[in-house]
Amino acid sequence: MNVFRHEIKLNLKSINFKFAALVWLIIVFVLGLYIWTIIPFQKKIIMDRMETEARNMATSIGQVTLNAIILEDYSFIVDHCMKVIGESKSLEYIVITRKDGFSLIHTFNSWYIDTLAGSWVPDSGIRQKASIEFSELKKEQCFHYSHFFSYSGIEWGWIHVGLSIEPITAAMKQLYGRSFVLFALFSVLGLLISIIFTKSVISPIHTLNKITSQYTLGDKNVHANIHTGDELEHLADSFNFMIDKINTMHSELEMRVRERTRELAESNTRLVSEIDIRKQIEEKQKELLTKLETANEELRSFAYIVSHDLKAPLRAIGSLVQWIADDYGNLFDEKGRDQLDLLVSRTRRMHGFIEGILQYTRLGRTNDEKQDVNLNMLVENISDLLEIPNNIQINRKNRLPVIRYEKTSIEQVFQNLIGNAIKYMDKEKGIVSISSRQDKSFWEFTVKDNGPGIDSRYYEKIFQIFQTLTPRDQFESTGIGLTIVKKIIEKNGGKIWVTSELGKGSTFLFTIPRTVNNSMPN
Asked: What does the pLDDT look like over 294-311, one tens digit per residue?
Protein backbone atom coordinates (compact mmCIF):
# COMPACT_ATOMS: atom_id res chain seq x y z
CA MET A 1 0.00 0.00 0.00
CA ASN A 2 2.84 2.42 0.88
CA VAL A 3 4.59 1.60 -2.38
CA PHE A 4 1.39 2.33 -4.32
CA ARG A 5 0.95 5.68 -2.56
CA HIS A 6 4.58 6.49 -3.37
CA GLU A 7 4.00 5.77 -7.07
CA ILE A 8 0.95 8.07 -7.17
CA LYS A 9 2.84 10.77 -5.36
CA LEU A 10 5.68 10.66 -7.86
CA ASN A 11 3.50 10.59 -10.99
CA LEU A 12 0.23 12.47 -10.71
CA LYS A 13 -0.39 11.92 -14.44
CA SER A 14 -0.42 8.13 -14.13
CA ILE A 15 -3.59 6.17 -14.78
CA ASN A 16 -3.35 4.86 -11.20
CA PHE A 17 -3.80 8.31 -9.76
CA LYS A 18 -6.45 9.34 -12.30
CA PHE A 19 -8.54 6.20 -11.80
CA ALA A 20 -8.29 6.36 -8.00
CA ALA A 21 -9.15 10.06 -8.03
CA LEU A 22 -12.13 9.38 -10.32
CA VAL A 23 -13.53 6.66 -8.05
CA TRP A 24 -13.00 8.85 -4.97
CA LEU A 25 -14.61 11.87 -6.62
CA ILE A 26 -17.65 9.75 -7.60
CA ILE A 27 -18.03 8.58 -3.99
CA VAL A 28 -17.64 12.13 -2.66
CA PHE A 29 -20.03 13.50 -5.26
CA VAL A 30 -22.73 10.95 -4.44
CA LEU A 31 -22.29 11.61 -0.73
CA GLY A 32 -22.35 15.39 -1.25
CA LEU A 33 -25.45 15.06 -3.43
CA TYR A 34 -27.16 13.05 -0.72
CA ILE A 35 -26.29 15.61 1.97
CA TRP A 36 -27.26 18.49 -0.33
CA THR A 37 -30.63 16.82 -0.86
CA ILE A 38 -31.32 15.74 2.72
CA ILE A 39 -30.54 19.11 4.40
CA PRO A 40 -33.30 21.07 2.58
CA PHE A 41 -35.65 18.13 3.21
CA GLN A 42 -34.93 18.14 6.95
CA LYS A 43 -35.23 21.93 7.02
CA LYS A 44 -38.64 21.68 5.34
CA ILE A 45 -39.76 19.15 7.96
CA ILE A 46 -38.76 21.55 10.75
CA MET A 47 -40.50 24.46 9.01
CA ASP A 48 -43.64 22.37 8.50
CA ARG A 49 -43.62 21.41 12.16
CA MET A 50 -43.37 25.06 13.24
CA GLU A 51 -46.08 26.04 10.75
CA THR A 52 -48.37 23.35 12.21
CA GLU A 53 -47.68 24.67 15.74
CA ALA A 54 -48.36 28.25 14.64
CA ARG A 55 -51.54 27.22 12.80
CA ASN A 56 -52.89 25.43 15.85
CA MET A 57 -52.21 28.52 17.98
CA ALA A 58 -53.85 30.80 15.42
CA THR A 59 -56.90 28.50 15.20
CA SER A 60 -57.27 28.50 19.00
CA ILE A 61 -56.90 32.29 19.15
CA GLY A 62 -59.36 32.59 16.28
CA GLN A 63 -62.00 30.68 18.26
CA VAL A 64 -61.50 32.96 21.28
CA THR A 65 -61.66 36.00 18.99
CA LEU A 66 -64.95 34.71 17.58
CA ASN A 67 -66.41 34.46 21.09
CA ALA A 68 -65.12 37.96 21.94
CA ILE A 69 -66.78 39.37 18.81
CA ILE A 70 -70.06 37.69 19.73
CA LEU A 71 -69.92 38.94 23.36
CA GLU A 72 -68.35 42.27 22.32
CA ASP A 73 -65.78 41.85 25.08
CA TYR A 74 -62.15 41.80 23.87
CA SER A 75 -60.69 41.15 27.33
CA PHE A 76 -61.10 37.42 26.61
CA ILE A 77 -58.68 37.78 23.70
CA VAL A 78 -56.04 39.60 25.76
CA ASP A 79 -56.18 37.11 28.65
CA HIS A 80 -56.05 34.13 26.35
CA CYS A 81 -53.19 35.49 24.25
CA MET A 82 -51.08 36.40 27.31
CA LYS A 83 -51.72 32.95 28.75
CA VAL A 84 -50.65 31.24 25.49
CA ILE A 85 -47.48 33.36 25.32
CA GLY A 86 -46.63 32.57 28.93
CA GLU A 87 -47.05 28.82 28.45
CA SER A 88 -45.10 28.61 25.15
CA LYS A 89 -41.30 28.57 25.09
CA SER A 90 -40.98 29.63 21.46
CA LEU A 91 -43.89 32.09 21.02
CA GLU A 92 -42.64 35.70 20.62
CA TYR A 93 -45.81 37.68 19.79
CA ILE A 94 -49.48 37.46 18.80
CA VAL A 95 -51.02 40.25 16.73
CA ILE A 96 -54.73 40.37 15.91
CA THR A 97 -55.37 42.87 13.09
CA ARG A 98 -58.67 44.00 11.64
CA LYS A 99 -58.94 44.90 7.94
CA ASP A 100 -58.87 48.60 8.83
CA GLY A 101 -55.48 48.18 10.60
CA PHE A 102 -56.78 48.24 14.20
CA SER A 103 -54.50 45.74 16.04
CA LEU A 104 -54.13 44.05 19.45
CA ILE A 105 -50.42 43.40 19.95
CA HIS A 106 -49.31 40.85 22.61
CA THR A 107 -45.70 40.22 23.55
CA PHE A 108 -44.11 38.24 26.39
CA ASN A 109 -44.65 40.83 29.15
CA SER A 110 -47.23 43.26 27.78
CA TRP A 111 -49.98 44.03 25.29
CA TYR A 112 -51.12 47.22 23.63
CA ILE A 113 -53.32 48.63 20.86
CA ASP A 114 -51.98 50.14 17.65
CA THR A 115 -52.89 50.74 14.01
CA LEU A 116 -50.74 48.67 11.64
CA ALA A 117 -50.43 48.52 7.86
CA GLY A 118 -48.28 46.94 5.16
CA SER A 119 -47.54 43.24 5.66
CA TRP A 120 -49.79 43.17 8.75
CA VAL A 121 -52.81 43.67 6.47
CA PRO A 122 -52.16 41.34 3.48
CA ASP A 123 -54.43 41.00 0.45
CA SER A 124 -57.67 39.23 1.26
CA GLY A 125 -56.93 36.66 -1.47
CA ILE A 126 -54.02 35.24 0.61
CA ARG A 127 -55.53 32.83 3.18
CA GLN A 128 -52.36 31.89 5.05
CA LYS A 129 -48.67 32.63 4.87
CA ALA A 130 -45.61 31.31 6.76
CA SER A 131 -42.01 32.56 6.39
CA ILE A 132 -38.88 33.57 8.29
CA GLU A 133 -38.58 37.35 8.17
CA PHE A 134 -37.34 40.34 10.18
CA SER A 135 -39.84 41.36 12.86
CA GLU A 136 -40.27 45.07 13.63
CA LEU A 137 -41.77 44.11 17.01
CA LYS A 138 -38.80 42.01 18.20
CA LYS A 139 -36.10 43.65 16.05
CA GLU A 140 -34.82 40.23 15.01
CA GLN A 141 -35.58 37.32 12.69
CA CYS A 142 -38.75 35.40 13.59
CA PHE A 143 -40.91 32.66 12.13
CA HIS A 144 -43.99 34.66 11.11
CA TYR A 145 -47.34 32.97 10.40
CA SER A 146 -50.41 34.89 9.16
CA HIS A 147 -53.88 33.32 9.40
CA PHE A 148 -56.95 34.81 7.72
CA PHE A 149 -60.02 35.18 9.96
CA SER A 150 -63.65 35.70 8.95
CA TYR A 151 -66.91 35.96 10.89
CA SER A 152 -70.33 34.98 9.46
CA GLY A 153 -68.90 35.17 5.93
CA ILE A 154 -67.44 38.63 6.56
CA GLU A 155 -63.70 39.10 6.10
CA TRP A 156 -62.78 40.35 9.60
CA GLY A 157 -58.96 40.40 9.64
CA TRP A 158 -55.75 38.48 10.36
CA ILE A 159 -54.14 36.63 13.26
CA HIS A 160 -50.32 36.91 13.18
CA VAL A 161 -48.20 34.51 15.23
CA GLY A 162 -44.44 34.99 15.66
CA LEU A 163 -42.23 32.09 16.82
CA SER A 164 -38.59 32.16 17.80
CA ILE A 165 -36.23 30.68 15.19
CA GLU A 166 -33.86 29.33 17.86
CA PRO A 167 -35.30 25.79 17.51
CA ILE A 168 -34.71 25.95 13.76
CA THR A 169 -31.18 27.28 14.25
CA ALA A 170 -30.31 24.65 16.83
CA ALA A 171 -31.73 21.84 14.70
CA MET A 172 -29.92 23.04 11.58
CA LYS A 173 -26.61 23.37 13.44
CA GLN A 174 -27.01 19.82 14.69
CA LEU A 175 -27.88 18.65 11.17
CA TYR A 176 -24.88 20.44 9.62
CA GLY A 177 -22.58 18.96 12.27
CA ARG A 178 -23.78 15.43 11.64
CA SER A 179 -23.56 15.93 7.90
CA PHE A 180 -19.97 17.21 8.13
CA VAL A 181 -18.89 14.23 10.27
CA LEU A 182 -20.63 11.83 7.89
CA PHE A 183 -19.04 13.54 4.87
CA ALA A 184 -15.53 13.40 6.37
CA LEU A 185 -15.88 9.76 7.47
CA PHE A 186 -17.18 8.53 4.12
CA SER A 187 -14.62 10.63 2.22
CA VAL A 188 -11.74 8.88 3.97
CA LEU A 189 -13.43 5.50 3.56
CA GLY A 190 -14.08 6.24 -0.12
CA LEU A 191 -10.39 7.15 -0.61
CA LEU A 192 -9.28 3.81 0.83
CA ILE A 193 -11.80 1.90 -1.30
CA SER A 194 -10.74 3.75 -4.47
CA ILE A 195 -7.02 3.00 -3.84
CA ILE A 196 -7.66 -0.71 -3.27
CA PHE A 197 -10.03 -0.97 -6.23
CA THR A 198 -7.61 0.90 -8.51
CA LYS A 199 -4.72 -1.38 -7.51
CA SER A 200 -6.66 -4.50 -8.49
CA VAL A 201 -7.83 -3.05 -11.81
CA ILE A 202 -4.72 -1.20 -13.00
CA SER A 203 -2.14 -3.97 -12.45
CA PRO A 204 -3.27 -6.03 -15.51
CA ILE A 205 -3.39 -2.82 -17.53
CA HIS A 206 0.26 -2.16 -16.64
CA THR A 207 1.09 -5.65 -17.89
CA LEU A 208 -0.68 -4.97 -21.22
CA ASN A 209 1.16 -1.64 -21.49
CA LYS A 210 4.53 -3.33 -20.96
CA ILE A 211 3.79 -5.97 -23.61
CA THR A 212 2.63 -3.27 -26.04
CA SER A 213 5.91 -1.38 -25.56
CA GLN A 214 7.91 -4.53 -26.28
CA TYR A 215 5.89 -5.16 -29.45
CA THR A 216 6.42 -1.62 -30.72
CA LEU A 217 10.18 -2.04 -30.14
CA GLY A 218 10.25 -4.98 -32.54
CA ASP A 219 9.52 -8.06 -30.46
CA LYS A 220 6.80 -9.68 -32.61
CA ASN A 221 6.48 -12.85 -30.48
CA VAL A 222 5.24 -11.35 -27.18
CA HIS A 223 1.93 -12.47 -25.63
CA ALA A 224 -0.05 -11.35 -22.59
CA ASN A 225 -0.57 -13.93 -19.83
CA ILE A 226 -3.31 -12.50 -17.63
CA HIS A 227 -5.66 -14.81 -15.71
CA THR A 228 -8.06 -12.69 -13.70
CA GLY A 229 -11.26 -14.40 -14.84
CA ASP A 230 -12.92 -11.14 -15.80
CA GLU A 231 -13.11 -8.71 -18.73
CA LEU A 232 -9.39 -7.93 -18.43
CA GLU A 233 -8.58 -11.57 -19.23
CA HIS A 234 -10.85 -11.34 -22.27
CA LEU A 235 -9.05 -8.12 -23.20
CA ALA A 236 -5.68 -9.91 -22.96
CA ASP A 237 -6.94 -12.74 -25.18
CA SER A 238 -8.19 -10.19 -27.71
CA PHE A 239 -4.83 -8.43 -27.52
CA ASN A 240 -2.97 -11.68 -28.29
CA PHE A 241 -5.33 -12.38 -31.21
CA MET A 242 -4.77 -8.83 -32.48
CA ILE A 243 -0.96 -9.29 -32.40
CA ASP A 244 -1.21 -12.50 -34.41
CA LYS A 245 -3.55 -10.81 -36.88
CA ILE A 246 -1.25 -7.80 -37.22
CA ASN A 247 1.76 -10.03 -37.90
CA THR A 248 -0.15 -11.82 -40.66
CA MET A 249 -1.41 -8.54 -42.15
CA HIS A 250 2.07 -7.05 -41.96
CA SER A 251 3.47 -9.83 -44.10
CA GLU A 252 0.65 -9.46 -46.61
CA LEU A 253 1.04 -5.68 -46.62
CA GLU A 254 4.73 -5.87 -47.45
CA MET A 255 3.94 -8.09 -50.42
CA ARG A 256 1.17 -5.73 -51.60
CA VAL A 257 3.42 -2.68 -51.20
CA ARG A 258 6.00 -4.24 -53.50
CA GLU A 259 3.31 -5.00 -56.09
CA ARG A 260 1.75 -1.57 -55.74
CA THR A 261 5.12 0.15 -56.11
CA ARG A 262 5.65 -1.61 -59.41
CA GLU A 263 2.14 -0.67 -60.60
CA LEU A 264 2.63 2.97 -59.59
CA ALA A 265 5.86 3.16 -61.55
CA GLU A 266 4.04 1.93 -64.66
CA SER A 267 1.09 4.28 -64.02
CA ASN A 268 3.43 7.22 -63.57
CA THR A 269 4.94 6.58 -66.98
CA ARG A 270 1.47 6.48 -68.60
CA LEU A 271 0.38 9.56 -66.66
CA VAL A 272 3.29 11.63 -67.93
CA SER A 273 2.32 10.71 -71.47
CA GLU A 274 -1.36 11.59 -70.85
CA ILE A 275 -0.38 14.95 -69.34
CA ASP A 276 1.56 15.86 -72.47
CA ILE A 277 -1.42 14.92 -74.66
CA ARG A 278 -3.83 16.90 -72.43
CA LYS A 279 -1.63 19.98 -72.59
CA GLN A 280 -1.67 19.81 -76.38
CA ILE A 281 -5.50 19.48 -76.37
CA GLU A 282 -5.86 22.46 -74.00
CA GLU A 283 -3.63 24.61 -76.20
CA LYS A 284 -5.75 23.70 -79.26
CA GLN A 285 -8.94 24.51 -77.32
CA LYS A 286 -7.58 27.93 -76.34
CA GLU A 287 -6.63 28.57 -79.95
CA LEU A 288 -10.12 27.55 -81.18
CA LEU A 289 -11.83 29.74 -78.52
CA THR A 290 -9.73 32.70 -79.55
CA LYS A 291 -10.63 32.15 -83.21
CA LEU A 292 -14.33 31.74 -82.29
CA GLU A 293 -14.38 34.97 -80.26
CA THR A 294 -12.64 36.79 -83.12
CA ALA A 295 -15.14 35.38 -85.65
CA ASN A 296 -18.12 36.37 -83.47
CA GLU A 297 -16.78 39.88 -83.03
CA GLU A 298 -16.12 40.20 -86.75
CA LEU A 299 -19.64 38.89 -87.48
CA ARG A 300 -21.21 41.44 -85.10
CA SER A 301 -19.10 44.21 -86.59
CA PHE A 302 -19.99 43.10 -90.13
CA ALA A 303 -23.73 43.01 -89.33
CA TYR A 304 -23.53 46.42 -87.70
CA ILE A 305 -21.52 47.97 -90.56
CA VAL A 306 -23.64 46.41 -93.30
CA SER A 307 -26.89 47.42 -91.60
CA HIS A 308 -25.59 50.93 -90.99
CA ASP A 309 -24.32 51.31 -94.59
CA LEU A 310 -27.58 49.98 -96.06
CA LYS A 311 -29.68 52.59 -94.29
CA ALA A 312 -28.51 55.50 -96.47
CA PRO A 313 -29.27 53.96 -99.89
CA LEU A 314 -32.48 52.44 -98.58
CA ARG A 315 -33.54 55.83 -97.24
CA ALA A 316 -32.75 57.32 -100.69
CA ILE A 317 -34.84 54.61 -102.40
CA GLY A 318 -37.71 55.28 -100.02
CA SER A 319 -37.50 59.01 -100.64
CA LEU A 320 -37.33 58.50 -104.44
CA VAL A 321 -40.34 56.18 -104.42
CA GLN A 322 -42.25 58.68 -102.29
CA TRP A 323 -41.40 61.47 -104.73
CA ILE A 324 -42.59 59.38 -107.67
CA ALA A 325 -45.81 58.61 -105.80
CA ASP A 326 -46.34 62.31 -104.99
CA ASP A 327 -45.39 63.74 -108.42
CA TYR A 328 -46.52 61.04 -110.86
CA GLY A 329 -49.00 59.02 -108.90
CA ASN A 330 -51.92 60.36 -110.93
CA LEU A 331 -50.31 59.03 -114.14
CA PHE A 332 -50.47 55.40 -112.96
CA ASP A 333 -53.56 53.26 -113.18
CA GLU A 334 -54.96 51.55 -110.11
CA LYS A 335 -52.73 48.51 -110.44
CA GLY A 336 -49.68 50.72 -110.86
CA ARG A 337 -50.56 52.73 -107.78
CA ASP A 338 -51.02 49.47 -105.81
CA GLN A 339 -47.58 48.32 -106.94
CA LEU A 340 -46.13 51.69 -105.99
CA ASP A 341 -47.73 51.50 -102.50
CA LEU A 342 -46.39 47.96 -102.15
CA LEU A 343 -42.90 49.22 -103.03
CA VAL A 344 -43.18 51.94 -100.37
CA SER A 345 -44.38 49.36 -97.83
CA ARG A 346 -41.53 46.95 -98.66
CA THR A 347 -39.01 49.78 -98.38
CA ARG A 348 -40.29 50.69 -94.93
CA ARG A 349 -40.24 47.04 -93.91
CA MET A 350 -36.65 46.73 -95.12
CA HIS A 351 -35.78 49.84 -93.13
CA GLY A 352 -37.42 48.23 -90.08
CA PHE A 353 -35.37 45.04 -90.59
CA ILE A 354 -32.15 46.99 -90.76
CA GLU A 355 -33.05 49.07 -87.71
CA GLY A 356 -33.86 45.85 -85.82
CA ILE A 357 -30.53 44.32 -86.77
CA LEU A 358 -28.75 47.46 -85.58
CA GLN A 359 -30.56 47.31 -82.25
CA TYR A 360 -29.81 43.60 -81.88
CA THR A 361 -26.08 43.97 -82.61
CA ARG A 362 -25.87 47.09 -80.44
CA LEU A 363 -26.93 45.01 -77.39
CA GLY A 364 -23.66 43.13 -77.46
CA ARG A 365 -21.49 46.15 -78.22
CA THR A 366 -22.61 48.80 -75.74
CA ASN A 367 -23.21 48.89 -72.00
CA ASP A 368 -25.30 51.78 -70.73
CA GLU A 369 -24.80 52.91 -67.15
CA LYS A 370 -27.33 51.46 -64.72
CA GLN A 371 -29.53 53.89 -62.82
CA ASP A 372 -32.63 53.90 -60.60
CA VAL A 373 -35.68 53.54 -62.88
CA ASN A 374 -39.21 54.14 -61.59
CA LEU A 375 -41.24 51.67 -63.64
CA ASN A 376 -44.53 53.43 -62.86
CA MET A 377 -43.35 56.58 -64.64
CA LEU A 378 -41.71 54.48 -67.37
CA VAL A 379 -44.98 52.71 -68.20
CA GLU A 380 -46.86 56.03 -68.25
CA ASN A 381 -44.31 57.52 -70.69
CA ILE A 382 -44.53 54.47 -72.95
CA SER A 383 -48.35 54.66 -72.92
CA ASP A 384 -48.17 58.29 -74.07
CA LEU A 385 -45.58 57.44 -76.73
CA LEU A 386 -47.54 54.52 -78.27
CA GLU A 387 -50.73 56.57 -78.88
CA ILE A 388 -53.01 53.83 -77.52
CA PRO A 389 -56.38 53.45 -79.36
CA ASN A 390 -59.53 54.38 -77.47
CA ASN A 391 -60.76 50.77 -77.31
CA ILE A 392 -57.63 49.55 -75.50
CA GLN A 393 -56.97 50.20 -71.80
CA ILE A 394 -53.61 49.89 -70.04
CA ASN A 395 -53.94 48.84 -66.36
CA ARG A 396 -51.39 48.50 -63.61
CA LYS A 397 -52.58 45.84 -61.17
CA ASN A 398 -50.28 47.04 -58.41
CA ARG A 399 -47.57 49.61 -57.73
CA LEU A 400 -44.40 48.81 -59.70
CA PRO A 401 -40.96 49.01 -58.04
CA VAL A 402 -37.93 51.22 -58.60
CA ILE A 403 -35.15 49.04 -60.04
CA ARG A 404 -31.45 49.47 -60.78
CA TYR A 405 -31.25 48.91 -64.56
CA GLU A 406 -30.16 50.31 -67.91
CA LYS A 407 -33.05 52.69 -68.62
CA THR A 408 -32.97 52.34 -72.43
CA SER A 409 -32.95 48.54 -72.19
CA ILE A 410 -35.85 48.20 -69.75
CA GLU A 411 -37.75 50.78 -71.80
CA GLN A 412 -37.29 48.58 -74.90
CA VAL A 413 -38.61 45.57 -72.96
CA PHE A 414 -41.85 47.19 -71.81
CA GLN A 415 -42.33 49.07 -75.12
CA ASN A 416 -42.08 45.86 -77.19
CA LEU A 417 -44.36 43.81 -74.91
CA ILE A 418 -47.02 46.54 -74.57
CA GLY A 419 -46.74 47.48 -78.27
CA ASN A 420 -47.24 43.86 -79.38
CA ALA A 421 -50.30 43.53 -77.12
CA ILE A 422 -51.80 46.66 -78.73
CA LYS A 423 -50.80 45.74 -82.29
CA TYR A 424 -52.37 42.25 -82.28
CA MET A 425 -55.48 43.10 -80.20
CA ASP A 426 -58.59 41.59 -81.83
CA LYS A 427 -61.22 42.43 -79.18
CA GLU A 428 -63.57 45.41 -79.26
CA LYS A 429 -62.51 46.23 -75.69
CA GLY A 430 -58.85 45.45 -75.24
CA ILE A 431 -57.21 45.27 -71.80
CA VAL A 432 -53.44 45.16 -71.20
CA SER A 433 -52.55 44.50 -67.53
CA ILE A 434 -49.11 45.06 -66.02
CA SER A 435 -48.19 43.74 -62.56
CA SER A 436 -45.21 42.74 -60.45
CA ARG A 437 -44.37 40.62 -57.43
CA GLN A 438 -41.19 40.30 -55.40
CA ASP A 439 -39.36 37.20 -54.27
CA LYS A 440 -36.24 36.80 -52.13
CA SER A 441 -33.85 37.14 -55.07
CA PHE A 442 -35.80 38.58 -58.00
CA TRP A 443 -38.71 40.68 -59.26
CA GLU A 444 -41.26 38.98 -61.51
CA PHE A 445 -43.18 41.16 -63.98
CA THR A 446 -46.29 40.22 -65.96
CA VAL A 447 -47.70 41.81 -69.15
CA LYS A 448 -51.09 40.24 -69.84
CA ASP A 449 -53.61 40.93 -72.64
CA ASN A 450 -56.97 39.57 -73.76
CA GLY A 451 -55.94 39.32 -77.43
CA PRO A 452 -56.00 36.34 -79.82
CA GLY A 453 -53.54 34.21 -77.83
CA ILE A 454 -50.59 32.08 -79.01
CA ASP A 455 -50.55 28.38 -79.82
CA SER A 456 -48.28 26.47 -77.40
CA ARG A 457 -46.32 25.13 -80.38
CA TYR A 458 -44.93 28.61 -81.03
CA TYR A 459 -43.85 29.52 -77.44
CA GLU A 460 -40.17 29.19 -78.42
CA LYS A 461 -40.48 30.31 -82.04
CA ILE A 462 -41.76 33.81 -81.21
CA PHE A 463 -38.44 34.63 -79.47
CA GLN A 464 -36.38 33.70 -82.56
CA ILE A 465 -35.14 36.47 -84.82
CA PHE A 466 -37.33 37.49 -87.83
CA GLN A 467 -40.10 35.07 -86.78
CA THR A 468 -43.77 36.21 -86.88
CA LEU A 469 -47.01 34.26 -86.52
CA THR A 470 -49.06 36.42 -88.95
CA PRO A 471 -48.36 37.51 -92.55
CA ARG A 472 -46.36 40.75 -92.63
CA ASP A 473 -48.84 42.21 -95.16
CA GLN A 474 -51.54 41.84 -92.50
CA PHE A 475 -49.50 43.16 -89.55
CA GLU A 476 -46.36 45.12 -90.32
CA SER A 477 -43.65 43.56 -88.12
CA THR A 478 -39.91 42.90 -88.31
CA GLY A 479 -40.04 39.82 -86.06
CA ILE A 480 -37.09 41.03 -84.01
CA GLY A 481 -38.76 42.80 -81.07
CA LEU A 482 -39.19 39.73 -78.81
CA THR A 483 -35.68 38.57 -79.75
CA ILE A 484 -34.29 41.88 -78.44
CA VAL A 485 -36.43 41.58 -75.29
CA LYS A 486 -35.14 38.05 -74.60
CA LYS A 487 -31.51 39.10 -75.13
CA ILE A 488 -31.87 42.12 -72.79
CA ILE A 489 -33.49 40.04 -70.03
CA GLU A 490 -31.00 37.15 -70.21
CA LYS A 491 -28.02 39.53 -70.52
CA ASN A 492 -28.96 40.98 -67.10
CA GLY A 493 -29.42 37.61 -65.38
CA GLY A 494 -33.19 37.14 -65.82
CA LYS A 495 -35.45 34.92 -67.91
CA ILE A 496 -38.62 35.37 -69.97
CA TRP A 497 -41.42 33.00 -70.94
CA VAL A 498 -45.02 33.08 -72.19
CA THR A 499 -48.28 31.36 -71.28
CA SER A 500 -51.36 31.66 -73.45
CA GLU A 501 -54.80 30.33 -74.28
CA LEU A 502 -56.07 30.69 -77.84
CA GLY A 503 -58.91 33.16 -78.10
CA LYS A 504 -58.46 34.46 -74.54
CA GLY A 505 -55.10 36.19 -74.54
CA SER A 506 -51.41 35.84 -73.68
CA THR A 507 -49.28 36.48 -70.61
CA PHE A 508 -45.59 37.38 -70.91
CA LEU A 509 -43.59 36.93 -67.70
CA PHE A 510 -40.00 37.91 -67.07
CA THR A 511 -37.72 38.21 -64.04
CA ILE A 512 -35.10 40.75 -62.96
CA PRO A 513 -32.58 39.96 -60.18
CA ARG A 514 -33.09 42.08 -57.07
CA THR A 515 -30.32 44.34 -55.76
CA VAL A 516 -29.92 46.40 -52.57
CA ASN A 517 -31.18 49.42 -54.50
CA ASN A 518 -34.46 47.82 -55.61
CA SER A 519 -37.41 49.17 -53.64
CA MET A 520 -41.05 50.13 -53.82
CA PRO A 521 -41.67 53.85 -54.49
CA ASN A 522 -43.30 55.89 -51.75
From this structure: 766 666 666 666 555 665
